[in-house]
Design brief:
The complex is a heterotrimer of chains A (318), B (502) and C (315).
Chain A lengths: L1 H26 L6 H26 L7 H17 L4 H25 L4 H19 L5 E2 L3 H8 L1 E2 L2 E2 H19 L1 H11 L1 H6 L4 H27 L1 E2 L7 H11 L11 H21 L3 H29 L4
Chain B lengths: L3 E10 L1 E2 L5 E2 L7 E9 L3 E5 L6 H8 L7 E6 L2 E3 L4 H6 L2 E4 L11 H5 L12 H14 L15 H13 L5 E5 L7 H16 L3 E5 L3 H7 L2 E6 L2 E7 L5 H9 L17 E8 L8 E6 L3 E6 L5 H9 L8 E4 L2 E2 L5 H7 L1 E4 L3 H5 L6 H6 L3 H4 L7 H14 L16 H14 L4 E5 L7 H16 L3 E5 L3 H7 L2 E6 L2 E6 L7 H8 L1
Parallel strand pairs in B: 5-10, 5-11, 8-9, 9-10, 15-20, 15-21, 18-19, 19-20
Antiparallel strand pairs in B: 1-4, 1-6, 2-3, 6-7, 11-12, 13-14, 13-16, 16-17, 21-22
Helix pairs in contact in B: 14-15
Chain C lengths: L2 H11 L1 H16 L6 H26 L7 H18 L4 H24 L5 H20 L4 E2 L3 H8 L1 E2 L2 E2 H19 L1 H11 L1 H6 L4 H27 L1 E2 L5 H14 L11 H20 L6 H19 L4
Antiparallel strand pairs in C: 1-4, 2-3
Helix pairs in contact in C: 1-2, 2-13, 3-8, 3-11, 3-12, 3-13, 4-5, 4-6, 4-11, 4-12, 5-6, 5-11, 7-11, 8-9, 12-13, 12-14
The chains are: A mainly alpha (318), B alpha/beta (502), C mainly alpha (315).
Chain lengths: 318, 502, 315
């Protein structure tokens, strides 16, 4: 019965996207234009990238609130490297490595010091934001090479490069989670940590990987964002954090851990992207958007928690 | 006679205090000089009351906790188990009472957790095929792709069995495997055990159910109070003899009896069900009376207490307190009216460990002592000091943190908390668990004194001597319902109580 | 017990005192112009308003939760009181009352979600925060309100000696909440709840009520902070406070000795934590370090504080 319910949830999600797209398409003239859709998908790429890593962290019963800061910090690092003459590829790699290291540090604090994930990542995010301010001297960094800008805004075979990048990562995430033993272990850790330990599996390695991966995803997202905008702004992380969590939640990743498909986070990100876009085109101020996302977040998590509590009460066999 | 493949000799395990230091003294060891051996191709039954040490002994074998004294030899070689994985690799499979499965994964994933096949990508098809084969070889009709949380408890247990069996082990430990199985499933289980025997795998079978033991067992070992009583061959099995081995002598000098139960009813429970499928429970407790609640772990005694107290949902039934029907039940209301519950698990639910003795003792009386919400340290100090004296709590002073006290003193602090709250009815759940003999006697005296003062006492206990000597009446619970009410203290014997629990 | 051991025990229990002392000593020695009455007065003035907010955050952290909406509540209350007082001409006392009630409602919502529906606190308050930000921007159309009425400003900015009324208002709150947390049964139940939820609940503590109340307190105190901040800068802004402010308050709370697992925290600790933070800020200014180092330094400090707190081994 629960399996049917699980599928029903996915159908609901797809239905939600379809509904938003349809309704918006009917009501808003420019919504269904190719140009608009490609634009939305290009922008959604950023949020979706972040959400893959966030989804994994949520699955192991954690949360990554550092992604906002990492988006700025890693882009700043790679920007500075490029400005000092390093080839673009290496500079971007440097940024990604930084993201991985920061994530790894969070993972170590959560695993070894047993500090709750939300505080650890909250603090790391602040450190990252602070460092990007220092690195940039309080200013944004801009004016990158044409190649860089092309990656952010150009297309290959008619499809924006941003989309290739996000597709690459969603496939990578899918392969990791569903086709490797690490993926099984990640789900297991979210399900029952004691069992994982009993089987002799190192929970530390799992945690380190997941947090580092989340850092990598945030780094890639940040670098892509700065390529799209041709500027690194130290505060650019902003609402991406909220959106990433919302995307995961809409995509059915359960807050209680152990459940959820990473590729559904992509669907959640798309939903969010189209929603924001529709609200924009109606003329609704950006102010309303964050409000609605906030409401959605609480609503969805609230409902899933409520349902879960009811189920838990019922299953209390003595 | 078959060869011995496992020998555990002179095994002892101490109790540890809050600092991690072992407490010495023969009367407080969890296991004391226990002997246990397993032969090839046998089913060896391990029995004993709650707290006898069977789970501890098996946990040592399973690598979950280490032993403090003694030696273990597996296939002739001396071993020391340091973690569950190592014990598994050496050939010991363990099926716990609490399921050792990840509910969010499917059957195949659980079976192969930690042992996944495949190089870069896991060989899913291979694992599913292998799982299917393992399941059908044992006669289980379960689809390996089913998420474990969708399986019934019985099926989940089957998966655990497959998991244990498939690790190439020579000894499988089964801890109360038939607790939630139907008769048909039990028969199936026994067939599996017999098949295993033929294939050269021995089973250590922990259970209370005498009817089953005769069917499946080859030998039987009895533990009592952490000590080894003896091992008999199942051909010599005699019901009374075994029960005798389990219960032992009563230390009646520990108990005083100054109280006389009155006829005034304080609590009456009518038709309360602790789960939708269990039988309704009806009990009553009177002023100045000590009512014992006996039964095995899992019989539903704590669940009953928690249902009455309002921290657990119940199904149907009415509760009358001091003659009046009680509608809403929660700890706050109950305490204000004088009904209180001393929990089974003092570390988690009874004490706020990092807080001082003083803070803990006054915790349930805050509203009563300080009606205008203003704490008065003088009042707190007086109350806690007088409790410390009255209950003879061994400590450095009221400001000492509860976490640093010994088990017996911690329990006294919890008692002190409830006593300070002036109870009219006190539910005690295993009041002397983990308490040394000296403190036990003191606690019995305190309980007796309370009853003499007119407090109604409901005492849940797994220790038969305690139950028999303290109670004026005994309700015995089994499978979520009351199986018997014993009203004549002269007829209380351990054998009789045990008979009702099984 | 040897004397040094007694000192180490005192400092490990009252870490916030140690931190402040070290900072003040260090700064007095190495930073020019630090050790001056004017400077100390400045630090106190700067610490006054965040202390109020930090008290609320401390209470929430003590339950094992967190209030990520605090900074945004400040913004909403700032613009609310500004709109009421200036744009709609509502009387000052009534405007402040309405704003406080608004805070209470927000807190009730947070508390309800956390306690009754069991949505994790960081999710609830993350969501609420953005909702508050959105509302603040909508009702103000993104614009700030300047030149607030003199009578309004006077409440906070009247000078008494070297300090202004805000400091004394803050002191008042600190005293009230010192009583609540350390001398009342509510505070005792709160500590017990934070240290062991099951034990406190089974002992009859009104844990549901406590959990909801701390979020109400946090949001109301955030409202107070928003109102006072508006007086301070003579401007009502929807963006007042914000995420950064929330983080600073959390840092101050942790510096002040709050345990992130719950149960441990104090009002003096909250105040000392804020003062420590302001001392650090003060030094950064006096040393002419560029302002943008502030975030990074703050982040690293709290990181070190957390590592230090937990490396000792918790509980």
């Amino acid at each position: 019965m629960n399996r049917k319910y699980g599928n029903a949830k996915n159908l609901l999600l797809l239905g939600l996207i379809a509904a938003i797209v349809l309704v918006s398409g009917l009501m808003i003239p420019r919504f269904l234009s190719l140009e608009n859709i490609l634009n939305v998908i290009r922008q959604t790429a950023i949020v979706s990238l972040v959400s893959y890593g966030s989804a994994m962290v949520i699955i192991i019963r954690g949360i990554d609130l550092s992604v906002g800061g990492l988006i700025a910090f890693c882009a700043m690092i790679s920007g500075i490297m490029m400005k000092s003459g390093l080839p673009m590829g290496l500079a971007m790699l440097a940024g990604v490595v930084c993201g991985a290291l920061m994530g790894l540090f969070s993972g170590v604090m959560v695993e070894k010091l047993e500090v709750p994930a939300f505080i650890t990542t909250l603090v790391m995010g602040q450190v990252a934001t602070g460092l990007s301010l220092v690195l940039g001297g309080g200013n944004s960094l801009g004016g990158f090479s044409d190649a860089y800008v092309f990656i952010g805004n150009g297309s290959f075979l008619g499809i924006p490069i941003s989309i290739y990048i996000t597709l690459f990562f969603v496939i990578l995430s899918y392969l990791i989670m569903n086709r490797t033993r690490l993926g099984t272990h990640i789900y297991a850790l979210g399900g029952n940590e004691q069992v994982v330990r009993n089987q002799g599996i190192s929970t530390a390695k799992i945690r380190y990987f997941v947090f580092a991966y989340s850092g990598v995803c945030a780094a890639v997202a940040g670098i892509l964002l700065s390529a799209q905008m041709n500027t690194v702004h130290p505060q650019q992380g902003g609402t991406y954090q909220l959106d990433a969590v919302a995307a995961c939640v809409i995509g059915g990743v359960n807050m209680a851990g152990g459940e959820g498909k990473v590729y559904l986070a992509l669907a959640g990100a798309l939903t969010l992207g189209f929603l924001r876009n529709a609200l924009n085109l109606i003329g609704l101020h950006p102010y309303y958007q964050n409000l609605i996302v906030g409401v959605l977040l609480i609503l969805i998590v609230g409902m899933s928690m409520y349902r879960r509590n009811k189920a838990l009460e019922k299953s209390l066999i003595f | 006679m078959n060869n011995t493949i496992l020998e555990m000799n002179h095994i002892s395990k101490y109790i540890y205090d809050a600092y991690g230091k072992p407490i010495h003294g023969t009367d407080v060891k969890i296991l004391n000089d226990v002997h246990f051996d397993v032969r090839e191709q046998e089913v060896h039954i391990l029995i004993g009351e709650n707290g006898a040490g069977k789970s501890t002994l098996m946990k040592i074998l399973g690598g979950i906790i280490p032993h403090d004294e003694g030696s273990i030899a597996l296939f002739g070689k001396e071993v020391r188990f340091t973690n569950p994985r190592q014990s598994q690799t050496m050939g010991i499979g363990f099926i716990h009472q609490e399921l050792d499965l990840c509910l969010n994964l499917d059957v195949a994933q659980n079976l192969f957790l930690g042992k996944e096949t495949g190089k870069l990508f896991s060989d899913r098809r291979g694992m599913y095929e292998a799982s299917r084969e393992m399941l059908s070889r044992l006669g289980f009709d379960i689809d390996p792709a089913t998420p474990v949380r969708l399986l019934s408890t019985a099926h989940q247990q089957m998966v655990e069995i497959v998991k244990a069996v498939s690790c190439d082990c020579k000894i499988i430990i089964m801890d109360e495997p038939t607790a939630s199985l139907t008769q048909g499933e039990i028969d199936h289980l026994f067939e599996i055990i017999r098949n295993l025997k033929k294939q050269g795998v021995s089973t250590v079978y922990i259970s209370h159910r005498f009817e089953e033991l005769k069917e499946i067992g080859d030998r039987l070992t009895v533990l009592r109070d952490g000590g080894y009583v003896g091992t008999i061959d199942m051909s010599e099995f005699d019901h009374d003899k075994v029960v005798n081995m389990m219960v032992g002598r009563t230390l009646s000098h520990m108990y005083t009896c100054r109280h006389t139960p009155s006829a005034e009813e304080v609590l009456r429970v009518e038709g309360l069900k602790i789960a939708p499928e269990t039988e309704p429970i009806s009990i009553a407790v009177h002023r100045g009376e000590v009512v014992g609640i006996g039964g095995l772990v899992g019989a539903g005694r704590t669940e009953l207490a928690k249902s009455i107290y309002g921290v657990r949902s119940s199904y149907g039934g009415k509760i009358y307190y001091q003659g009046k029907l009680v509608e809403k039940r929660n700890p706050q209301r109950w305490i204000d009216q004088g009904l209180m519950y001393l929990t089974e698990d003092r570390k988690l639910e009874g004490l706020v460990l990092p807080m001082s003795i003083e803070g803990n003792i006054t915790l349930a009386s805050l509203r009563r002592l300080f009606p205008n919400a203003r704490l008065k340290s003088k009042v707190e100090r007086e109350i806690s000091t007088s409790m410390i004296k009255k209950l003879r709590i061994v400590c450095r002073g009221p400001k000492q943190r509860a976490a640093t006290l010994s088990g017996g003193n911690q329990q006294k602090v919890v008692l002190g908390k409830w006593l300070s709250a002036k109870p009219k009815l006190l539910i005690l759940d295993e009041p002397t668990r983990g308490v040394d003999v000296g403190a036990k006697a003191e606690i019995y005296e305190i309980i007796d004194g309370l009853a003499a003062d007119g407090v109604a006492i409901m005492m849940i206990s797994s220790e038969l001597p305690e139950l028999i000597n303290m109670s004026d009446r005994i309700y015995v619970m089994r499978r979520g319902a009351v199986s018997a009410e014993m009203t004549d203290p002269d007829t209380f014997t351990q054998e009789r109580v045990l008979a009702y629990t099984l | 017990m040897p004397k040094t051991r007694k000192w180490t025990e005192f400092f490990s229990k009252n870490g916030s005192v140690a931190v402040i002392l070290l900072l003040v000593i260090f700064s007095s020695l190495f930073v020019n112009h630090f050790f001056a009455l004017n400077n100390f007065a400045l630090i106190l003035k700067q610490a006054a308003i965040p202390s109020i907010a930090c008290i609320g955050m401390t209470l929430v952290l003590m339950t094992g939760g967190i209030d990520l909406s605090l900074g945004y509540m400040i913004g909403l209350s700032s613009i609310s009181v500004g709109l009421l007082v200036k744009t709609y001409g509502v009387s000052i006392p009534l405007s402040m009352l309405i704003t406080l009630v608004l805070g209470a409602l927000v807190g009730l919502f947070n508390g309800f979600c956390v306690q009754k529906i069991k949505v994790p606190a960081f999710i609830t308050t993350l969501g609420t925060g953005f909702i508050l930000l959105g509302v603040a921007q909508i009702i103000s159309n993104g614009a700030s309100i300047n030149h607030l009425p003199e009578a309004f400003l006077a409440i906070g900015k009247t000078k008494i000696g070297l300090l202004n009324t805000t400091v004394f208002i803050s002191l008042g709150f600190c005293l009230v909440f010192y009583y609540v947390l350390h001398l009342s049964t509510f505070g005792r139940s709160l500590s017990a709840f934070g240290l062991s939820e099951p034990a406190s609940r089974l002992s009859g503590c009104p844990t549901a009520r406590i959990n909801i109340t701390v979020y109400v307190i946090s949001s109301v105190l955030a409202s107070v902070a928003g109102i006072l901040l508006s007086m301070d800068v003579n401007c009502a802004q929807p963006t007042m406070g914000g995420g950064d402010y929330t983080f600073q308050v959390i840092t101050a709370a942790v510096l002040g000795g709050v345990s992130l697992y719950g149960g441990i925290g104090s009002v003096p600790g909250a105040v000392f934590g804020v003062i420590s933070l302001k001392v650090i800020n003060n030094c950064i200014n006096l040393l002419n370090v560029p302002y943008y180092w502030g975030s990074a330094v703050l982040g690293i400090i709290i990181l070190l504080a957390i590592i230090f707190q937990n490396a000792k081994g918790r509980k």
